[in-house]
Design brief:
eight-stranded mixed sheet, 14 strands
Length: 749
């Protein structure tokens, strides 16, 4: 069994087979035009309603008077309130927008309402008892009315603002504009002055704090001056202290160096005397610059020893003179030792004195350095406090000067507002021309109608065209079946039942017949190698015209030199035998159950010699089991040997599974969809069910198409070529009534 489509395993996605071309979608503009033509009555109704509303608005529009005034807004005339920046000479676009918002502010409008007592003006508010502007409801109402009546806008590329007021009274419109301008000018001065006063008050509080800081810093500076002994507040006031401290440190440093040198000399002299030979102590003392009597004592001792030696020889050892000399020698030696000890003691005392002098001098130097360091820290603190005092004092004096001049400069910072054109009482009322109202209302109605048309089109889930069918299913469109008008049945008609129900029998040259010939050609060329043997016709839901397509397709195919068998496989609501005026007592169910043979069940149609019809037969209790039986497969195999083509009419796919069971045995499957009735989701679901069951789905037939619609213009008549010579009225009056009756009976199913 061949297939015209390739299936993607597992998901039922269809690919376009080789050689098959897909229909090109219409352009967006053409589709939009088609939608508008289709829903033209909605658009026309919306336009008519819009025009009627425009007529009502034009007839009931109130008589209003518009007064206009213009002002020029420039930058401030002087410096800002405190003189800290220079104001711009002109306003930017943002500044102009700010002024426009100020003019329409609630506070300014409320000021105008109070001045003019607008709360009790019958033109703005309905007449009634006296109203108080302080009442929140009255205030909100009058401000809202003023905001609706006023239109304030800046004129581009200028510094001018236009103020327009529209009310029911001419003089009131002009008065509101002029009062608004006056209130705006007054607010400009008052707001700047109030802002300056607020800044001055804040600055005064800051000055008080700053004054206390200046006084505190001055007291701290004076206390530090007393502690340091500094006179004056200049930068040179601390130089004497610095010079004195530096000189003292230098003098003590010199004295410390000299004391250290003296200590080193005394220590060296003492060590030399302490470690030298007693006999050489005299020369050591002389080299050190110390005067002593050792030399004379040693000379005396030497002379005495010489005399003693001489007396021992001449006088004897017991001689008194000798004894006197010996006693004298002992005294001299004792004096020599005493002198040596004295020299050593003096050297040590000199060393101790030198060390003490060095220590005291170094201590004094260290103390002076500490005092110098403390003086340096005090001088740094003094400098910082002096700078703090000078900064606070300078800031205080400057701010005090600004504060004194703030009241004078307050008026210089106000925005300059010049009245270019005051508002005058308008002479004539301002009314919109009726033509403009009608045109605007018609355009609005047209736009609304188009929006409603596209909304209805988007909400319509029915299939509307061939391109949509192909896009939804991914299958080619085999043919479109035209829709015919309903005509009353002619009781005097001489046509047979088959001619009444099968349209192609009586209108062989009509668009209806041509559509089925196109369907026949498409099906015969759908498979490669050989034409399909078994053709299965089904639909998604009832009343889509599948039986009509099956019967007319079988009749068209039988007009050739072929044998065609039409099988009614809809065992639940059989209808084929009614179309041909045949009996349904023997048919498919009796053959499958073995109650009748194929020859007994097949009936010929006199109007179509090559067409045989097998009706459904009596309704069985289990149609699905019979259609899925081996007997059904054997029956189709036998019929395939006898007939050239077999057309099977099956129940809707989404209603029962009969069509899915038979689909796997068919060579070509046609899904019938009815324009405007078939749901997109239903058709897509039918395609998916058939594809996943392994059936060879050939394409879709779009039934009951309005070929007079723009998208089908010329579908059956190219360049004026059409079947206009056919007596369509006669066929519609006689033949189509049977088709409609059959479709209505199919709809009951």
């Amino acid at each position: 069994m061949s297939s015209s489509t390739s299936q993607t395993a597992g998901n039922g996605t269809l690919d376009t087979p080789p050689g098959q071309t897909s229909t090109t979608a219409e352009s967006a503009v053409a589709e939009a035009f088609n939608v508008i033509r289709k829903r033209r009555w909605v658009v026309i109704a919306a336009m008519v309603l819009g025009i009627l509303f425009g007529l009502y608005r034009a007839a009931t529009q109130p008589v209003l008077y518009t007064a206009t005034g213009q002002i020029e807004v420039r930058g401030s005339q002087g410096a800002t309130a405190l003189g800290m920046a220079t104001a711009a000479s002109s306003f930017s676009s943002d500044d102009m927008q700010n002024e426009v918002l100020i003019l329409t502010s609630q506070s300014l409008l409320l000021t105008v309402a109070r001045e003019m007592n607008l709360a009790n003006n019958p033109t703005l508010l309905p007449p009634g008892p006296a109203r108080n502007i302080n009442d929140p409801h009255v205030r909100a109402a009058i401000v809202g009315r003023l905001q609706n009546a006023l239109m304030v806008q800046s004129i581009p590329r200028t510094q001018m603002i236009s103020i327009t007021c529209t009310t029911g009274a001419a003089q009131l419109s002009a008065d509101i504009v002029n009062h608004l301008i006056n209130a705006y000018q007054q607010r400009s001065f008052e707001s700047r002055f109030a802002s300056t006063q607020r800044v001055s008050q804040w600055l005064q509080s800051q000055l008080d704090d700053l004054k206390q800081q200046v006084e505190a810093s001055q007291e701290q500076l004076m206390d530090l001056q007393k502690r340091l002994g500094v006179l004056g507040l200049g930068a040179d006031a601390t130089k004497p202290l610095t010079t004195q401290a530096t000189a003292a440190v230098e003098a003590l440093s010199t004295a410390a160096i000299n004391a250290k040198v003296q200590r080193i000399l005394a220590e060296s002299r003492y060590r030399v005397l302490a470690n030298s030979d007693p006999n050489l102590m005299e020369s050591t003392a002389q080299s050190s610059g110390v005067l002593s009597g050792l030399s004379s004592l040693r000379s005396d001792a030497s002379a005495t020893r010489a005399q003693i030696a001489q007396s021992e020889v001449t006088l004897g050892k017991k001689n008194p003179q000798l004894l006197a000399l010996q006693a004298h020698l002992r005294e001299v030696e004792k004096e020599i030792q005493t002198e040596q000890l004295r020299l050593l003691t003096e050297a040590k005392q000199a060393l101790v004195a030198a060390q003490a002098n060095e220590n005291q001098t170094q201590s004094a130097l260290d103390q002076q350095k500490d005092e110098s360091y403390r003086l340096r820290d005090d001088l740094v603190e003094y400098t910082l406090r002096q700078r703090d005092y000078e900064a606070n004092r300078q800031l205080y004096e400057e701010l005090l000067s600004k504060l004194r001049g703030a009241s004078v400069q307050a008026g210089l910072d106000a925005v300059a507002i010049d009245v270019v054109d005051p508002a005058f009482k308008p002479i004539n009322p301002t009314m919109t021309p009726r033509s403009s109202i009608l045109i605007r209302a018609a355009l609005v109605g047209l736009v609304v109608g188009i929006i409603i048309a596209f909304t209805l089109e988007s909400l319509d889930t029915g299939i509307r065209g061939i391109a949509e069918v192909e896009q939804i299913t991914g299958l080619p469109s085999l043919a479109i079946i035209p829709k015919v008008r309903r005509m009353p049945l002619d009781p005097n008609s001489t046509l047979t039942v088959a001619q009444n129900n099968i349209g192609v029998l009586t209108t062989s040259k009509s668009q209806f017949s041509e559509a089925f010939r196109s369907l026949r050609t498409a099906l015969l060329l759908a498979t490669t190698g050989h034409p399909p043997k078994i053709l299965l016709i089904t639909s998604s839901t009832p009343t889509e015209g599948k039986t009509t397509v099956a019967t007319n397709l079988a009749a068209v195919m039988a007009q050739r030199e072929t044998r065609i068998l039409l099988i009614d496989a809809d065992m639940r609501r059989p209808n084929v035998h009614h179309r041909f005026g045949l009996s349904g007592r023997v048919g498919l169910s009796t053959v499958l159950s073995g109650s009748a043979t194929l020859e007994e069940a097949v009936k010929s149609v006199p109007e179509i010699p090559n067409l045989d019809v097998m009706s459904s037969g009596p309704v069985p209790p289990f149609p699905t089991e019979m259609l899925s039986s081996q007997s059904m497969r054997d029956l189709l195999a036998r019929c395939s040997e006898i007939y050239t083509h077999i057309v099977i009419d099956t129940p809707p796919v989404l209603s029962v599974t009969d069509a899915v069971i038979l689909a796997r045995q068919a060579d070509a499957i046609v899904i019938v969809a009815r324009q405007g009735k078939s749901s997109r989701n239903a058709v897509r679901r039918t395609r998916d069910i058939l594809v996943r069951s392994g059936a060879a789905v050939t394409g879709v037939v779009l039934n009951s198409v309005d070929i007079s619609a723009p998208e089908y213009h010329g579908y059956y008549g190219y360049s004026g070529y059409s079947y206009s010579n056919v007596d369509m009225d006669a066929w519609e009056a006689n033949g189509q009534q049977g088709i409609r009756r059959s479709e209505e009976s199919e709809g009951d199913a």
